Amino acid sequence: MSALDLQKIEADLKGNTLLIYWYIIRKGNEPTGVREVQRSLDLSSPSVALHHLEKLRALGLLEKSLIGEYSLKEEVKVGFLRYFMRLGRFMLPRHLFYAVFFTTMLLSYLIIYPNLVSIHQILALIFLISATIITWYETLRTSREAPF
User: Fold this and answer.
1) What is the pLDDT of residues 124-145, one digit of tens each?
2) How large is the average pLDDT for residues 1-17?
3) Is 21 helix (H, G, I), strand (E, B) or coil?
4) What tens digit of pLDDT does each residue of 96-112 get?
5) What's the Rg (C-alpha) of the chain?
6) Are 49 and 62 in contact (CB under 8 A)?
7) In this structure, which long-range contacts are made by residues 137-140, counting pairs with CB atoms below 8 Å and at least 24 apart in sequence?
8) From residue 19, how far is each of 38, 65, 94 by CA, in Å?
9) Phi then psi for 91, rounded to 5 degrees?
10) What is the Cα–Cα distance from 144 to 35, expressed in whole angstroms?
């Protein structure tokens, strides 16, 4: 996709359209009907769901089958979606992997060096604790701001 297309997609992916796109991404390759989207997301009517599904189809992100079900055609990382990655059916914050890494490093460091005797060990511990706290904070903040 060109940069111009991505800018248009980013401008149009807001509100219920983003919520529906997030829902479709989480479902993966499983086709989804209009009423299923309406019920799952508690939208006011099927026509609202249809409007947003058609908007996503016009953007080239969804495709429609002959029986009227929608499925993911292309996954784009624009706007808020940049901060997440899909792992099967799960949308995980990107910071989660860094948080787990730094937590593992911190625990390993405490196991390997249980007696902190030098200033270098204390500084390394301060660095690991700081990195762990910052990455977990960012992970939780991003998760709370997720549209779904």
Assistant:
1) 999 999 999 999 999 999 988 7
2) 74
3) helix
4) 999 999 999 999 999 99
5) 21
6) no
7) 138/93, 138/95, 138/99, 139/93, 139/95, 139/96, 139/98, 139/99
8) 11, 21, 19
9) -105, 110
10) 27
* Ramachandran angles phi, psi of 62, nearest 5°: -125, 160
Task: Look up the pTM and report it.
Answer: 0.70
Contact 40, 23 (CB under 8 A): yes
Task: Please write the tens of the pLDDT for every residue from 72-94.
Answer: 888 887 777 888 888 877 888 99
Phi and psi at residue 84, in whole multiples of 5°? -125, 155
Count of C-beta atoms within a 10 Å radius of residue 87: 10
Distances (CA, A) of 8 to 21, 39, 105, 106: 15, 28, 41, 43
The answer to whether residues 145 and 80 touch, using CB atoms and an 8 Å cutoff, is yes
Sign of CA dihedral 143, 19, 76, 87: positive
Q: What are 106's two structure tokens?
A: 């911190």
Q: How many residues does the chain have?
A: 148
The predicted structure's pLDDT at residue 95: 93
